[in-house]
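Re: weekly structure request thread

Next one in the queue (139 aa):
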Amino acid sequence: MTAAPRVLVVSGALSGVDDEFFGAHERMHRPVYARVVLSEEEVPQTFFTWSEGWGGECRLEVIITAQLNKNRHIFVTVNGKFYEGTSEATRDLADEQTQSALVPKGGLPIPFSLQFFNREPFGGDTATISVTFVNVVEE
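Done, posted below.
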């Protein structure tokens, strides 16, 4: 008997602050929702890519990859890149992180968060990935 496919559901928000020396800080907040059906074991699938600029000089790029294992748990890898420069199209990488989480079968929500910082002098800019992963049976 073939095991039923699993679905990884991702929900939450991506946010950022362009810290201004003069004037009000510029903020970005984007709700996110994505799902991917996984039926093949040990095959990574990139299913979520996102890029958003704000404040005229910041950008957050996010890539999420999921892989179903033989126990029907899902191994998730999140890569985030935070850019800050003279425009939202800048190639000046301020921070990059890659972290993973194991999402067990059974529908238990797994919270996941990454924070990014511009560590240059007077660089108070930040970005955050704050999501929840859930692994459920495809119906």
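The chain has a mean pLDDT of 93. Residues 21 and 122 are 8 Å apart (CA to CA).
Next request, please.
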